[in-house]
Batch of 4 targets.
Target 1
Amino acid sequence: MANSAAPLARLIELFERLPGIGNKSAQKLAFHILNMNDAQIKYFTDTITNAHEKIHRCEVCCDLTDSDKCYICSDEKRDNSTICVVENTKDVMAFERTREYNGLYHVLHGAISPMNNIGPDDITVKHLISRLSDDNIKEIIMATNPTVEGEATAMYISRLIKPLGIKVTRLAYGVPVGADLEYADEVTLTRAIEGRSEI
Amino acid sequence: MANSAAPLARLIELFERLPGIGNKSAQKLAFHILNMNDAQIKYFTDTITNAHEKIHRCEVCCDLTDSDKCYICSDEKRDNSTICVVENTKDVMAFERTREYNGLYHVLHGAISPMNNIGPDDITVKHLISRLSDDNIKEIIMATNPTVEGEATAMYISRLIKPLGIKVTRLAYGVPVGADLEYADEVTLTRAIEGRSEI
């Protein structure tokens, strides 16, 4: 980037390296930053530093939190007999937005993927198994992504859990609500037919 | 955003407020930040603070720079008889990428827009006029955006400059190179016909 102001060029480059940000967006962000006042800049950089310093994994469910136990694990009103196993924090947020699920979570922080050299020890499987010594737990809902890696992870974990006598379930497959059947792929449609229920 | 980790919620919100960043992108950026190591975070925040502190307007052309005079105004090889008047720094970058223009610039930092309460005194028009006392200057190229505001600004400035006996030109209008005529709007096509040249 030919530009007189090296700090500006570095700023644009900084944003360009972020995921999903192209050259034009990086320029837009850089000029947005330059137009902020001193207090806004301080808030911007402090929020980043602060989040980075304070956020770590919940000692129970491995979700991200700034205290020892996350707000879900600390909430005594939640049903602690059910654990929903997800790949990452964004999935927890997605389930929480439904306001329907009242159990606990376990965040794997990834999925088993031999292609990317990610084995069971690289995600929080052991931690999950150690939680199962609690007699309260009646059901584990496998809610990993419906991808090859997510499926493999769900299968792997369910095989570890079943011998313990705990019920293991999987999210229902089917056509997404509001979607157009015309655009549904064959596998999804097949699963939707297989999983059909009486009305 | 229901989330245990207030610093994380604040971080996502911070990115959501940036231009062109939606909720999903903000989440993606926030988790990208959390996955950085301490050195990367320091570089990230330092680059932002540094750019914000050091960048100001060039005392000659009002482009953004971190020294008194920007690298274009300081370059003695540039043709100082021509000034290309643009709305903002991004336009300077766009012209510089062509590697064709060798004159100087003047950055208005906006365009006259009565709708948005932006008058001639809110952009660097006076500063531009003060530069014209230099006898070297032979031509002013108006390169404001081809929008209503850009046009009005170009007209306003050209009326101020013409009495000084300096040539004022405007960028050529026409169909963009590589574009499909089918999608060109009527005004552009009309201008392209009006501006046709012999081959």
Note: The beta strands of chain B are 56-57, 64-65, 79-86, 103-107, 139-142, 167-170.
Target 2
Amino acid sequence: MNAEESMELDRLLFVEEPIEADEVRVHPAWLPPEAFRALGSRRVLIHGDGLLVDTVLDEVSRACARYGGRVWHSPTWDVDVDLVFALRGTDELPGAAVRAALADGGDGEPLGDEGFLLTRDGDVTVVLADAPAGLLYGLFHVVRLCAAAFDPARPAERHRPALRRRMLNHWDNVAVHPVMGQVERGYAGGSILWREGRPRDDRARLREYGRLLAASGVNAISVNNVNVGHTEARLLTDRLGDVAEIADVLRPYGIRVHLSVSFAAPIVLGGLPTADPLDAAVRTWWSVTTRRVYERIPDFGGYLVKADSEGQPGPFSYGRDHADGANLLAEALAPYGGVVHWRAFVYNHHQDWRDRSTDRARAAYDHFAPLDGRFRTNVIVQVKHGPVDFQTREPVSPVLAAMPATRLAVELQVTQEYTGQQRHVCHLGPWWSEVLRFAPWGPDGRTIADVVAGAVGGGLVAVANVGDDPFWTGHPLAQANLYTFGRLAWDPGRDPAAILDEWITLTFPPSATADPELVRRVLHEIMDDSWRTYERYTAPLGVGFMVNPGDHYGPGVDGYEYTRWGTYHFADRDGVGVDRSRATGTGFAGQYPPHWATTYESPESCPDELLLFFHHVPYGHVLHSGSTVIQHIYDTHFAGVEEVTAMRRRWQTLRGTIDPSVYERVAERLDEQVRSATEWRDQINTYFFRKSGVPDKRGREIH
Amino acid sequence: MNAEESMELDRLLFVEEPIEADEVRVHPAWLPPEAFRALGSRRVLIHGDGLLVDTVLDEVSRACARYGGRVWHSPTWDVDVDLVFALRGTDELPGAAVRAALADGGDGEPLGDEGFLLTRDGDVTVVLADAPAGLLYGLFHVVRLCAAAFDPARPAERHRPALRRRMLNHWDNVAVHPVMGQVERGYAGGSILWREGRPRDDRARLREYGRLLAASGVNAISVNNVNVGHTEARLLTDRLGDVAEIADVLRPYGIRVHLSVSFAAPIVLGGLPTADPLDAAVRTWWSVTTRRVYERIPDFGGYLVKADSEGQPGPFSYGRDHADGANLLAEALAPYGGVVHWRAFVYNHHQDWRDRSTDRARAAYDHFAPLDGRFRTNVIVQVKHGPVDFQTREPVSPVLAAMPATRLAVELQVTQEYTGQQRHVCHLGPWWSEVLRFAPWGPDGRTIADVVAGAVGGGLVAVANVGDDPFWTGHPLAQANLYTFGRLAWDPGRDPAAILDEWITLTFPPSATADPELVRRVLHEIMDDSWRTYERYTAPLGVGFMVNPGDHYGPGVDGYEYTRWGTYHFADRDGVGVDRSRATGTGFAGQYPPHWATTYESPESCPDELLLFFHHVPYGHVLHSGSTVIQHIYDTHFAGVEEVTAMRRRWQTLRGTIDPSVYERVAERLDEQVRSATEWRDQINTYFFRKSGVPDKRGREIH
């Protein structure tokens, strides 16, 4: 038991070697040249000036060069064109139809920094915006519409993002971490930003990334891991130039750069004896340091902080609380319009499995809800969507309903740490949509999307899933998760199936595939329900975890059961689940507003899919579905594997129809998914059969 | 769940940072200056020449310089002395009494290469040997005897090692392995041989190590890990000089150097297209390569090979068997008297946990027993003492009784991979003694010690536990395991408690401690039964494993249960254990000669301590002890922790009595042992309580 086992560990920890960009053809993702055909074959006028208008001009010029169209960049309107991109507020206004559309759908609201109007003015399609970013988003909207953008019967449309802040967090390390590698929880090769301690040379690839993000709707990224190492800490000071370079590359696509900082920076970088947020010298240090950041990067977004969490430094060391800590940084950022994203992912990670009274699910609420109202207005408390840690199924975090006087952001995980690590197809749109539509005050109340929307909402944040992999995301189909994140952040009310359809249309355009309708049908069949399929063959009924410790890939039913991480299922010979009721459990259910507190409190009213998250029940407990818990476990695990096998079979029908490199990569990963799902099925079923002694009533093989 | 968890993994994988030798005072282990007091205060004559005689002279000179004695190196006997070290075969023979002793106890046998006679000749103590190594071993014998060596009434003694080959295998890597570090399964800091790709500079420390080994009886080491990496492979050819340097340092202490080689060396180093053992070019390559080794290191010991095991290359790739492979190397070594140690640790490490018919315990026998008689005489098949992998309790490997026409060595593990990793006190002497005294053909037959002894036996081999730690072994009390290994290899029949006593006397001499008798009593109380204590709080009744995967430290009851490593316990709600009977199980029990095959076959006759190794039984099964299996699990686990707590209490009585640095190091580790043993107790008890539902009949707390 030695080197090879260790090499296996190795393999799990560092899944993929970084690939040099120039060695490979990079997949165009949702912006293949063909997506620009309708636009590029037309006569286009661009009206307005500015960095982002230049980007629009470049995009249109490239498209026209390829597809035979023509482009004018002109301050006047007297050109005979098919399409106009125009900034409002220039001296000359567009035609009467456009004015009418503006007046008609306008209801007094401006288009804002990022919104745009799309309408027809006679034979001309007009995209009108109040600010350059609006034209850029309008451009990608026209790309998505293809020929439909030029339909004479198309009514006028106004588009504004529901969420002002649509941000990706890169958990990328500058220096390679000895265990976590270049990207913590990264499953797509190396980092797209850093390589072995230095910025990557390949700025063209980074620019291409910014372009893809803009086309999905994302407008901010943080450039380094929330776990801030020594090298990464210095991005704030003597290595600020590295951040500025990234900002320069992404700026033309309307993407602002944020930085994860260490709360201990005044000590580590500034040589101060303390990082106490109430210490005058510490405040001065942050103020001066932040001023320097803005001198270099005037549109810098702000700081992202993981404090007093899993070993990261924070205000607790000085007897201060999270509001003190966050306000310290907010004060320094305020003069420049910057924000602090302060993570609510704080819990006791030295828990004793013997102590059933401590409940990690309670922690974020217990720490943060009492602080509501104490945060400065440029603090955004960034809350993981669930109370534990990005599991395949969790309830929505009660923190999101508990801080009405605080700007809140929801944090999602696009990188598939717990959802198949981009080796499994697991399309997360439906899951995120459920989270965003969840109404924590009851069915008629505001939704999570409402909480994070608008001027006071903190928006949507996600941990990125991109690396230097030629398909960007390891699994080509995982691109759809990134795309869907951006589109949901723009409009959380959209149907995730419609977004997926949009992604399919863009990514597999007619000219790149022999039969686009076949591709569309097969991809929907494979992807639409893939998150629920993943749920079926992994941890049952919301109980969570049951993964291999460390790498979090593959089953490990008792993997975390006796650890200090607070992620238990308490399965014994009689039953399974965590009692989080107020009456007899940890009381977590009581952290919700009344409707859900009542619903979750009792096993009878608790939704099946969260039963074991909230209750410890006997294996014979009958679900709303009519099945017992144990039979449900068996049935879903057999079904999950059958569904994955069907996925693979369906994919095989695309052989020869699409780009062979995409076909092969997905085919390989589906093989692995079948293998892994089978392993999950067998381990989970065997585990519960050995514990419960209850045979499968359908008599299938359990080992 | 991220960086800190990974750092914890880090900590487990790389337990200790290497320490620069010159930063620390190195503990003298069992050769403190005080051990030489009786010798050093006397008049000593040394008679004879040669490298090892010079070593004796140096040792005696140093001792006399310190304690006021005097030394002569003279070809004549006419000096008035208290002690003579003399090589027989010189012209002049010692006195009549010596001649008489030689004739008396001699029964015709020569003293051999390493043996010696100790007797009195009038007022003179005489150590007589036929070869220089005998004088060196005689010297250390005199050291151990202290004043008793000069007792006029002491009868003459003849000493010859029962085992010719007494070897340590260093699993040290030359280049730091990304996961395993500098020493695979090393728990005592860095390597004493290598450091980051190069030989260590500190040759004085290495010489000191050789001296300690000689004083314990070890006469050979292999200098690199059996898992041979790219860098290590080159020790055979262009980096042979590194090996020669080590040989030069160790030679004065009678220690030969062996090398772990890669079976793929002809390809990797020689550029041949194959490593097929029957290929003529391959044979030539090994022949030429080996000749070069001997040109450089004339007393080179030979090759150690892990082939077709856990990913290492071997003859299977060419459709050849282990005899073909071993004989290839043996042929190359034969002209120079070198040997091949060919490991029998071969098994399928891609097992499917669902398949209960494959049994890793069977593998070594199934692979090797059919090859008996096919190995050249300079092949030693090196067999792990148990059929699985150095567990705290296993039966003795049936291979050791199955190959009468083959030279066999037993491989022990001094490094405490599965026995507390030198953080726990676990004195292994009693365990090894049980193995060596085991009589595989039944109580009246030959023992394992007999099998490996003498000219045809392959001797005893152990994986070393030493690093550059100032106490050599991390845990100061783990020194006793190293010492005991050497002494048992010299005389497997010795009582391990007597050996421990010897170690205590040498290591804690009167001048270094305020109360040697207190120290002796306390150390016996702590150490004598510590292996059984360790067994009590870990995996029960011989079932094995239940450790954390990867690092193998601490409990992980299901840690290997669903892996490919073939180390299962099959616990379900009704019972636990592996059915290895012939009648209903894997048939492993049938690999033993009739006495033990019958004994192990039935749960009724199987010894309690191996019950779950051989049988799957209900929790209510009544042991020979009268307890049920489940109650035995609870009782031993509570008892184990109580014993460790008592160890710590006893150790505390030594505060102020011994070297504070030893005291503190052991005290820290006992704290960790109490913590870890408690964790073992609670996890194992909880696991089996959850599974069985049977309460502890004494009502103690199970979580």
Note: Chain A touches chain B through 48 residues (CB under 8 Å).
Target 3
Amino acid sequence: MSTTQTNKFEIIKASTSKINEVDFENLSFGSVFTDHLLECDYTNGQWQKPVIKPYAPFLLDPSVRVFHYGQAIFEGMKAYKDDDEALWLFRPDENYKRFNNSAVRMAMPEVPEEVFIEGLNQLLQLDEAWVKKGKGNTLYIRPFMIATGTGVIASPSNDYKFMIILSPAKSYYSGEVKVLIAEHYSRAANGGIGAAKAAGNYGAQFYPTSLANKEGFQQVIWTDDATHTKLEEAGTMNVFFRINDTLLTAPVSERILDGITRKSLIDIAEKEGIDVQIRPVLVSELVEASKNGTLKEIFGAGTAAVVNPIVGFSYQDVYYELPKTEDSMALRLKDMLTNIQHKLAEDTFGWTVKV
Amino acid sequence: MSTTQTNKFEIIKASTSKINEVDFENLSFGSVFTDHLLECDYTNGQWQKPVIKPYAPFLLDPSVRVFHYGQAIFEGMKAYKDDDEALWLFRPDENYKRFNNSAVRMAMPEVPEEVFIEGLNQLLQLDEAWVKKGKGNTLYIRPFMIATGTGVIASPSNDYKFMIILSPAKSYYSGEVKVLIAEHYSRAANGGIGAAKAAGNYGAQFYPTSLANKEGFQQVIWTDDATHTKLEEAGTMNVFFRINDTLLTAPVSERILDGITRKSLIDIAEKEGIDVQIRPVLVSELVEASKNGTLKEIFGAGTAAVVNPIVGFSYQDVYYELPKTEDSMALRLKDMLTNIQHKLAEDTFGWTVKV
Ligand SMILES: Cc1ncc(COP(=O)(O)O)c(C=O)c1O
Ligand SMILES: Cc1ncc(COP(=O)(O)O)c(C=O)c1O
């Protein structure tokens, strides 16, 4: 291992790379990590010098607050290589802003831009061989922060650890996705933490999702917890509904994550002249549109899967199958978005940022 | 260190004890831990042999799911010593049941009774010198479970770690507690995880509680997230309201933790002939009762503080002060409960269990 000190970062290079052990054609999402990670500790009311170092386990006291009180947030973003082997990020400023919004909501310190953005750039340069070019290939980026202060008392931690880890990812075809519309369980409360990428929001969904899985549905579309009449979002994706040629999606709120894929797709669709309506979408509308044949498509939108077409939904024990479409809006928008991300189409929005 | 193997447990004793370094008269809650902890890992679909060993930090991979998806639950219970130095637990079966209910809701494996209950007994015997006799002294017990499986994909972990750590605690007087009634933020959703002791429920409250702190309120009383008209519970306590000589408390629900202190106080109060009403309590009722002088007391009930009298509440920017009472129901019930716990009164309910 070799250590470099700059003004801003300490960089400890791994003596060997694991890259040759990795089968880049058969990657299971989120399971393989690159050689290095970024780590930055918050202690005594201050962020310490960030360190880039070999990916490895680390020690925690059994009483750290992330275990007991769930002070933990994360982001999910991707890096892409173009045909000239240049490395790109997609709207990293949006992830950075959202991360700090999540931090505030979870009573955690905001991370400085030079740690998050510059740190990420440094880390990516070091592990850039892990990003393969070609439209199916990306590097999934996982910034996260956990409370590392000790003591089993339900109050905010004084100490935190911010990390960025990197995982090479193939764009995946997740098979036919059927969804269940939530009638009892829910994801977020009014005045709760649904709009934050807080760890606790995800574990909370595993049990109701497993019940849906048992009935043959891969995902749940969550509804508002008070009335279960409004369609909100899926586990890790915002949701779009195409009725005739209009695209509908719920407005973001304190219950719904402000997805970057969602807002990018809205911009692309509007630029394409598609009628996009951002308004509460009722379950009853969806059922009605399915019955009268105007419901053409449903799809999820999120960084991991980009766009995930849904083949049908179940509500009150009735399964509604969607028609096969020749001319899928989901796939057309997905193609336009991934072309921008991989620098295969002009980025008129100014979303892509070179590493 | 000496190691003992029994059929069921591996016991590794610390070579020296930290007990002489501890000032038992000046303990800050939840910050000092005893010499040993219990650890039991779940891998390959099975609970492994539990180990009792010296309290120490342990290694975790940066991608473990407790960091990213908040699969983490806990319990809070206490051990007491009577005047003959015998060690007692209070309704441990209730904590055990609730722990496994939390596990199911968070898609985590249930912990076997011999690990949780027998393990706790073994651990307490080893560290029994840390429990001091006398009514103000207790040992706070923190069983918890975290997801230790690696991989940043939002699905349940395959691996888990169950632990029990112990912290000596003085009964505390937390000063005058003023509370704020929640009008915007909330703790739990309908169909959410509010009834589980899931880590994510607590971190979610820190920010709104810090806003209340800034206005001079130590705690928030949460209301239902849909209408904010019903009084639910405080951060780590259920809440009771005394109107004239009637004691009111909200029914437990999927939004409210089924507190063991709460249900024990209800039983004691009923035995004392107090009129107890378990029904939704409206904020408007509370305000009305305060205005017309029938509101006599409000108090929180939970394992840590036992009973926490509240001196006043704020709602819609109006502060309602409670009258000073000579004859406090809160303190009377607290005394009866702690007398049972410390074996100073006959336990006609059969709640106390010898270690
Ligand atoms: C709950 C939730 N909704 C939606 C999304 C989609 O957001 P983005 O498009 O920014 O990845 C995510 C994250 O990936 C999410 O976790
Ligand atoms: C949210 C919440 N409510 C109420 C309580 C009180 O429960 P118990 O009396 O079992 O300690 C607790 C735990 O201590 C809690 O965390």
Note: Residues A 76, 197, 233, 236-238, 257, 259-262, 301-303 surround pyridoxal-5'-phosphate (ligand 1) (CB under 6 Å).
Target 4
Amino acid sequence: MVEHFDIQLPSYSRGFHLITEEVLRHSGPLPRVGLMNIFIHHTSAGLCINENADPTVLDDFERIFNHLIPENLPFIRHTIEGSDDMPAHIKASMVGSSVSIPIKDGRLALGIWQGIYLCEFRNRGGSRKLTVTISS
Amino acid sequence: MVEHFDIQLPSYSRGFHLITEEVLRHSGPLPRVGLMNIFIHHTSAGLCINENADPTVLDDFERIFNHLIPENLPFIRHTIEGSDDMPAHIKASMVGSSVSIPIKDGRLALGIWQGIYLCEFRNRGGSRKLTVTISS
Amino acid sequence: MVEHFDIQLPSYSRGFHLITEEVLRHSGPLPRVGLMNIFIHHTSAGLCINENADPTVLDDFERIFNHLIPENLPFIRHTIEGSDDMPAHIKASMVGSSVSIPIKDGRLALGIWQGIYLCEFRNRGGSRKLTVTISS
């Protein structure tokens, strides 16, 4: 059995943000056994799973990804939407457009230090839409 | 219910290519509610989801990934298959070997700007095989 | 139908390691048609699929990822757990926390050169826990 629900996130600032609680707030009761896939309907923001405890980790993610894929690389041609746009596309494909998480005993079976990250790569990305798919 | 079908892609040149229409052409009618996973059976090509409108984005992907992981890094040892081979393996694991996309109302629920990319990282990768899995 | 089982891996050294056989050893008989998702419950190790034949590929993965995301970048703030920790988080999100693989005729439908990699990014990561989810 496969079910969907959508989440329209509020606008987040550029950077990495924990959205585990927001995803769970929109979920009804979860099945005892299943798999959750969370998909983002955008090409300049992504999703991943990482550390949920120390806010400096989120800041370091932003700094390291900016260091890896800086703006204004001289050979870039897709510049019409701003210098943050093309790096955002690349970063989005590096982290990915969806995450899959097991559901056990009616709960997301994340590791104790794991949280779901919204990776907002645009300066003004606006509200982002997610589709959550639950297979059980 | 889980179903598969295979797609044998034609040979693509090195670079990033939109294959959304090709995937849909091989799909029969999709279920009303489901999840599609597309898996590539190769280690020097990958799949991701990104911008479907401006061809310069595809070119910039190729340039930025080559910039990030250049050929002929002096410390590489797996060189027997050519200078494009080891970077291709790394890039493939950075974008990933599969993508998952929700199916709603019998259609792929991609965002308006999203398309499926074949990421061909070899100079002469040849024909690539995909398996599409539909859960419903 | 969705089923889970857990795998507690032995401690692996920092680097990339083939775990395909280990995953299969823990699986009972696989369904004829299905999809396997393997999820890692940690934020400084990841999973990906890549070349299964030449051990120098595994070594080159370690060298190239270290080159891309070196330790002791001067702007990093999350340093309390050691210089290998923050780079490990970034690398983990670049390769990802789970892989999905089709199951056909009761077998994992990997390409002939594909194997499942545990990507251990910590110097002493210890034993890692996986959850394998089989949809059929």
Note: Chain A has a mean pLDDT of 98.
